[in-house]
Amino acid sequence: MNLFQISPPTRFDLRFSIAGIPVRVHPLFWLIALLLGSTSRSIWGVLIWLVVIFISILVHELGHAFAFRRFGQPSSIILHFSGGLTVPESVPWGGGYANVSLTPNQHIFISLAGPGAGFLLAVLALAVGAAIGGTIVPATILGIIPIPMILFSDGNNLLNQFFVSFLWVNIFWGLINLLPVIPLDGGNVCRYFLIQRDPLNGLRTSLWISVVIGALAAVGGFLLLDSIYMAFLFGMLAFQSFQLLQGIAGRF
């Protein structure tokens, strides 16, 4: 089971484009987003969560897409059951189509552009929140990683929920996405970095790192965050990396 494979089109897909970049939203995207926000006790809370997830993942993928465009590679965005995916597309070449050949450093830049866009979005949310009367307060992830939050003291719970959710998603999940677990962005950075420095064994090393860190993240997500979703996600990613390792071993 590949959690990040391209979801096939359906007649219920939402389709639009931003700056010439095609976007397709699979119906399962809304279902998974709804399940992840199911702890909310009000319909407004659920709607806020859906808006936050949609905007945050879309901006993350747009970061990748604009980075692809910078290097002459067109792409499209798919929001599906496991989040989002930016898919490079072929370009006309001679009498047919071909993919743009990217260097490892360009791949690293593209991988970092997604979390970078999310962090910039978080900074923008902080600025907007402060401008409309919110107060920036310190918070922590797991009690050790400091992050800023916006709170409103006038009792506006919906506004508080929106900004807290927005910052949590873009900062916390942005950091999680930088873990060296394939195929997360941090995993891709680790892979291309190691391949440059060790063409023979770099891929194998990056996969072993992905297995170990993925397994630790699965255990930590369950024990520290009480998140079955994180345990399942990182457990599956660690298993997929181990399968890829077995495939590499079988070719030699």
Describe what you observe in this structure.
The protein has helices spanning 27-36, 43-70, 104-131, 157-176, 185-197, 202-224, 228-250, and strands at residues 14-18, 21-25, 75-80, 83-88, 91-93, 96-98, 135-141, 145-151. It contains seven helices and eight strands, in the order ββααββββαββαααα. It has a four-stranded mixed beta sheet. Strands 5-6 form a two-stranded antiparallel ribbon. The protein has a two-stranded antiparallel sheet with strand order 7-8. Helix 2 crosses helix 3, helix 5 (185-197) packs antiparallel against helix 6 (202-224) and helix 6 (202-224) packs antiparallel against helix 7. With 252 residues, the chain is α+β, with helices and mostly antiparallel strands. The longest helix has 28 residues, at 43-70. It has a domain at 180-247. The chain is globular.
Question: Which features does this protein show?
Answer:
four-stranded mixed beta sheet, 17% strand, 58% helix, alpha+beta, 7 helices, 252 residues
How many alpha or pi helices?
Answer: 7
The sequence of SSEs as H and E is: EEHHEEEEHEEHHHH
Rounded Rg: 19 Å
Strand order of the largest sheet: 1-2-3-4
Please tally the β strands and state the result: 8
Q: Calculate the mean pLDDT score and round it.
A: 87
Alpha-beta classification:
alpha+beta
What is the distance, rounded to the nearest whole angstrom, between the alpha carbons of the first and last residues?
Answer: 24 Å
Instruction: Profile the largest sheet.
Output: 4 strands, mixed
Low-confidence stretches: none
Proportion in helices = 55-70%
Q: Assign an overall shape.
A: globular
The portion of residues forming beta strands comes to 15-25%
